[in-house]
Amino acid sequence: METSPPPTSAERVSRWRWLWILPRLAFILFVGGVALLLWMSDRADKEERRATLISDILWLEQNLRFHLTRNEEVLGRIDAAHTVSAAAFESFARTVFGFESGLRQLIWLGADGAVRQAHPITMDPSLVGDAGEAVPSRQSFRLARSLGKPVYSRAYPYFTNDWQFEVHVPVSREGSVVGVAIGVYRIRDLLGDSVPWWLAERYRISVIGDSGKVLGTRSKVESAVTEDGYQVGFDPPGWGLALHAVPYHAPRPLASVLLSVSLVILAMIVLWSLWVLRRHVLRRQLAEEQLRQEHAFRKAMEDSLDTGMRARNLDGEIIYVNPAFCRMVGWSAMELIGRRPPMQYWAEDYLDETRDIHDRILAGQGPEEGFELKLKHRNGSVIDVLIHEAPLIDAHGQQSGWMGSMVDITERKLAEQRVRQQQDRLQSTARLVAMGEMASSIAHELNQPLAAISSYCTGAANLLRHQTPATAVLPALDKAVEQARRAAQVIRRIYSLARPSESRFEKVGLGERLDAALALMEADIRQNGIRISLELSRQAEVDGDPVLLEQALFNLLRNAIESMRETAPDQRQITIALTCAEGYASLTIADRGCGIEASVAAQLFDPLFTTKPEGMGMGLAICRSVVENHRGRLSFEANPEGGTVFRILLPMIPQ
Question: Which residue in 111, 264, 298, 453 has its CB near the most CB atoms, within 10 A?
């Protein structure tokens, strides 16, 4: 069954992109809703103010109409008693003016149109509109008299900025018009008397003529007005006059302002929260992506390890194993996770030992270093493992279990066993070689003393046969005894070098050990005609085994002698130098032999490697082992005069 590959980071982002569209869309809708709410609230306020304006201006229009109609009725009730004298007329006028009628002058015209009475009389009759004598047209007077009902005149200017109009009210007695009562209204004063203060606080009230000119206004000069207003016809008096009201710019209610500010602040908080949430989610996604990559990297690394990893909780239950551990014991992870002791991979023959070490680890008393244990593979074979246990720490710094790493050392154990077997065989071979070398050395070293003894004894026997005095025979016998003693000394030295013994380190003088080794090689040196050049420092003392050091020097000297078999007799020379510097003793043995070829230089110190037909290849290997056991170094180089220079560097005993 084919499985689809895991989605990439870009695919995961594209899948969840709609989750970002949803909060953005919700935020846009929220902002739009807030804006719509504010707009609707403002519109409702405007409509409410508009409705209030219309209601107020209609009420004002009705109020003015009521005042004008009432004044018409009052003027129509003037009688003859009021018009006969100026005092009576003035009393009537004051009564009319006292009702806040808006009238500023009252005039009584006779049936012929002549002015009979006027109050106040200080006004210039020539400035009175249709009632004045200077006005050529008296249409309003004639129209009122002919119609028998009140008639209003056009508005006309009074002085400079004031405008006024008149109402002509015919007065009839017994069916005939006896005169016309004229009330003069000054528009500015009419508005001042008729418009209440609370209405003036809200609006600027104006009377506008048919040409659009403002004829009178009641307003608060210090307040600004809005552009919107409402206009209604001013009838009566008519003639194109209109009432126009413009509301003042009133500040918005505090509650509405607070609500709007709260909504704006809330929208900003929502926007900031969304931005913070987006940053948090992006950081979380990045952290999750990094965690997934880290987990994938660690899993790939753990899967590639040959080291088995096993995690257990504090109760000993397995909570994690890696593939290497599963391969090591032959059980799958599903079969191992969740298991408690005893485990199926514990070897039956070592069950008690395994259980003991398991309990000690869970109790925190396990070995700090690694320990070896035998486990059982699923196929029944026993394996050797090296285990290291460490506390398993969780994210809060608390120990939640134990993590163990296991290395299969079965092959290493088998290899160590094979190495031990090979070492045993090598030691046996080395002993045989040493016995052969010892026998060869004994034969070589004893050959000359025994030959001298034989010669001295033969000479002494011949002297005795010829009845030579004993005094003449004694020197030969003494020399024979000396040679026998020398032979015994050679045997002791060879035996001390060949017999196995434990290394016993002590203060050793390298010069003395070199003299002893030269004494052993004296016969070969003399037989091969080799010259020895010595430069010794008697202060060169090291901490070591004298027998092993003497054996190493003996092997190096013998190799130097054997390397000069093909060298001309006059060139056969061994130069030995022993110096001390910077806490080290340096001993060089330089010969003029055949030298060492570059092809064999890398294998020169390998055991069983030799270039001699009769050699065993153990001499230089033993020398290097002895020197390195004394914390020194054995090296070689080509001799500029021909041959090879071997150098031994050993640490000296501090003075």
Answer: 453
